[in-house]
Amino acid sequence: MEKVVIVTGANSGIGLALCERLLSSDSQVRLCLACRNMERAEAARAALLTSHSSARIDLLHLDVGSVQSVLGAAEEVKTRYSRIDFLYLNAGIMPNPTVDIRAFFKGLFSRNVINMFATAEGLLTQQDQLNSDGLQEVFATNLFGHFLLIRELEPLLCQPGHTSRLVWTSSSNARRSAFSIEDIQHRRGKEPYSSSKYASDMLSLALNTHKNKQGLFSSVICPGLVMTNLTYGILPSFFWTLIMPIMWLIRIFTNTFTLTPYAGAEALHWLFLQKPESLDPRAKYHSLTSGLGTNYTEPRIMDLDDEMTEVFFSKLLELERAVRRNLSEKTADSEHYQQYISEIQ
């Protein structure tokens, strides 16, 4: 039976590696590459068809950072498919990253080097900004746009007698200390990426609480330390040239340095092969690589609070109502709208 699989951010990195692995393992997969840049999406499809000439690969224009784009893409999906088997929520951004160079070199030659690379704690900050919908850009792209997409596609995801799966690409940088329930968009902080990834961990748990009985199951993965366009954007290219030999050496002693997109997609692919009932909704499934280069998946319990998770889910629903109302009234620049969504914080 054909399996409809949608992957956001599928034109490069972990998303593209996942698509390659899915096509290699299951001939019944019908892939939909949901991407913001359609030229790159076309190139990704062409590359996949080179090694899988008979594969069914669709393209979908989707910018998860834009409410209008998400709603338009969801309507397109509902006209194409009668159901969705897997929705991989993989797209994400880390704009304007700033590295504390002194802390970086201090950590590079310390016992904390592995944890530094794995979590970037105390090392990495970003400068966020408002998007055209009046939302913080990182929050909108990494979390809220995906949440809105799920809400729009519920008729295809929650069908009687059918099981559907959500899989979030989270991060080891998803830290509770970076998130505030009083500032869910991270307007006042300097770690919007970490905050948004912790928020996705909470949202996954909330979706399981509210949607499992309707046949919708959600899981979270961590790809490990992977060299992708997002990673390369953190430091100048000559820095990576200097430290890559060190990173490959460290890889012998730690399993979190997956490094390649193929290895980083291990947990994403592993979840595709599992029955949802066997999975732990409180676990994050980590892509890991042994010192000998063997890829495997390991669950680790997330640091989540049930009460805060439910409050967060309620705030997302309230924000969704405000954004939809704003879209219908076209008042994104109004002072009243900005004040209202700020109060939702």
TrEMBL record:
Highest taxon listed in the record's lineage: Eukaryota
UniProt keyword list: Membrane, Transmembrane, Transmembrane helix
Gene3D superfamilies: NAD(P)-binding Rossmann-like Domain (3.40.50.720)
Keyword Membrane: yes
Spans traversing the lipid bilayer: 230-250
Name of the protein described by the UniProt record: 3-beta-hydroxysteroid 3-dehydrogenase
Species this chain originates from: Characodon lateralis
